[in-house]
Amino acid sequence: MQQEQADGREIVIAGAGLAGLAVALGLHRKGLRSVVLESSPTLRTSGLAFITWTNAFRALDALGVGDKMRSQHQQIQRLNVMSSATGEIVQEIDLRAQGKRGTHEARCVSRTALLLALEEELPRGTIRYSSKIVSIEEDGNAKILHLSDGSTLRAKVLIGCDGINSVVARWLGFAKPSVDIMGTPYPYGMGNVCVAGDALHPMTPDLGQGGCAALEDGVVLARCLGDAILGGGGGGAESERIEAGLREYARIRRWRSAELIGTAYAVGFMQESSNAVISFLRDNWLAGAL
Q: Where is each FAD-binding domain found (predicted)?
């Protein structure tokens, strides 16, 4: 492990949250090892649970932990939407209905249980705890990562999954996200560096898609990067294939992220507005539209 780090052949992931562990597990399923740097001394288990929608379970199935989560969490059968003005039920939604891409699925999943499930599937030693990146330097195609404990790592790929205050995103020159205006997703990485999860698409919680989108990111990124490194069918040096793989990841996730950010903001704006017209639309149209 130490020799590989010194040679700069590591794929380094900053952050052991949902996105970081999903990327690491996706790469592991493709036969690629990574190192996950987590600033906390243990796995971050803050937060109780979150709604895990159909898209997230597709990602979990791709990672091989979907059935484990299903066995631990009951499926939500129905959703009743109530008017904030009258308290009446304005929409009843069957969450088991058949959709355009198959049967819908929604469960309230323990964040701790999901993180542990992802961690358990990773090779021992994949996560390095108490390891916070404080600065990043370039050395040819490699990135030199300076950690808070004084040690350094050389990485051939750096993936920032370290949240809305991402050190990696800041190094890439991205602006600090703001929740009081409708944002746009960050551009999609630079060379052999990219971001995923909240570092990529900070959004308001009004759609309940933050964690789900992070799992999507992990699967897509692992596929694009894994195919680029292992495939080699396109020829060229490995560094060129890595850049091409990350560009493909950016292409796939760019508009998906923009859609989620914009929709979450719009829904939140409508829910909090006291404007009479918007309130009428919210109570009579929004429930059905969602």
A: 10-175, 188-233
